[in-house]
């Protein structure tokens, strides 16, 4: 990951979005 620090890839964004969705789901399930 350190090697691609300067390179921004869409896959990373998708992973981040999935994580965000999971957190949101957890919050809504409260």
Q: Assign the structural class, choosing from mainly alpha, mainly beta, alpha/beta, alpha+beta, or little secondary structure.
A: mainly alpha
In which range does the helix fraction lie? 55-70%
| Approximate strand percentage | under 5%
Q: Total number of helical segments?
A: 1
Which blocks of ≥5 consecutive residues have pLDDT under 50? none
> How many runs of DSSP E, i.e. beta strands?
0
Gross morphology: rod-shaped
- What is the averaged pLDDT score? 79
Largest sheet: number of strands, sense, barrel closure? none
| Cα separation of the termini | 34 Å
Sketch the topology as an H/E string, one letter per element: H
Note the quaternary state here: single chain
Integer-rounded radius of gyration: 13 Å
Task: Describe the 3D structure.
By secondary structure, this protein is an all-alpha fold. It is about 65% helix and about 0% strand. It has one helix at about 10-30. The longest helix has 20 residues, at about 10-30. It is rod-shaped. The model has no long low-confidence stretch (mean pLDDT about 80). It comes from Homo sapiens. This is Growth hormone 1.
């Amino acid at each position: 990951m350190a090697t691609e620090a300067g390179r921004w890839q869409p896959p990373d964004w998708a992973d981040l979005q999935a994580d965000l969705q999971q957190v949101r789901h957890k919050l809504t399930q409260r």
